[in-house]
Design brief:
The chain contains four helices and nine strands; from the N terminus they run E-E-E-H-H-E-E-E-H-E-H-E-E. The protein is of the alpha+beta class and 234 residues long.
């Protein structure tokens, strides 16, 4: 199998905006789903106080007698192949996201050099910071790929970055010839499990005492080629 895949291209993804806190007294409003916001909805929203007739139409209610400001912006991310210059930012994200089972500097350096993987990073276009990364391992002689690691910086969580990275990784993994993606996820990580299930991953096994903290891992799998769902992974 040829592992070389066209990840030199950069994908610019504009995620739907959320309201962010821009002052000490501002109200941070997060709709149940960011899909409620259209990408072109950029600007400043004034949340009027919860008293008086002038705020009757305001959807934002907070403490009485005060004005609260929040800014609504569409967040754009650049998704591209990880490069050696990303190493320090990758290590910082790893340290912030994991207390055990961390990838070491040596491991990151190794995967940054290798071709038998899909290693992507998402960069916040507004300030150039690395928002997260995903690493998928390709297996020679099989149509199976393995999601090895996925992490999003705490300051970037809740914006759909993990979903974005996984969807882009699936696309590149598919172009490399893989039919199935497999992964392990901590049985206690309900948020990640919900994400994987929402994207079509299904549990097919369980590893007991899998992680350094002795927690179990669910084994999950997805056919990333919808037209080949009947094919048995090998």
């Amino acid at each position: 199998m040829d592992y070389k895949h066209p990840i030199a291209e950069v994908s610019v993804i504009r995620l739907r905006p959320t309201l962010q806190d821009y002052s000490d007294n501002s109200v941070v409003f997060k709709p149940r789903s960011t899909r409620q916001w259209h990408p072109s909805t950029i600007g400043t929203i004034l949340a009027l106080s919860s008293t008086g007739n002038d705020n009757a139409a305001s959807p934002f209610r907070h403490s009485p007698g005060r004005y609260h400001y929040a800014r609504c912006r569409a967040v754009s991310y650049l998704v591209a192949r990880a490069k050696p210059g990303d190493l320090e930012a990758l290590l910082a994200i790893e340290a912030a996201c994991f207390s055990t089972d961390r990838l070491s500097r040596r491991s990151f350096k190794r995967w940054l050099r290798r071709e038998d993987c899909v290693f992507l990073v998402a960069t916040d276009e507004t300030d150039g910071t690395l928002a997260g990364y995903i690493l998928v391992l390709l297996r020679r002689g099989t149509r199976l790929a393995r999601l090895y690691s996925l992490a999003v910086a705490p300051s970037q969580q809740g914006r759909g970055v993990a979903r974005l990275l996984l969807e882009q990784a699936e696309r590149h993994t598919r172009s490399s010839g893989a039919l199935y993606m497999r992964l392990e996820v901590a049985s206690t990580n309900s948020g990640a499990i919900r994400l994987y299930e929402s994207l079509g991953y299904e549990q097919f096994g369980l590893y007991h005492d899998y992680y350094d903290d002795h927690s179990d891992a669910l084994r999950m799998e997805k056919c990333i080629h919808p037209t080949n769902r009947a094919v048995t992974p090998t």
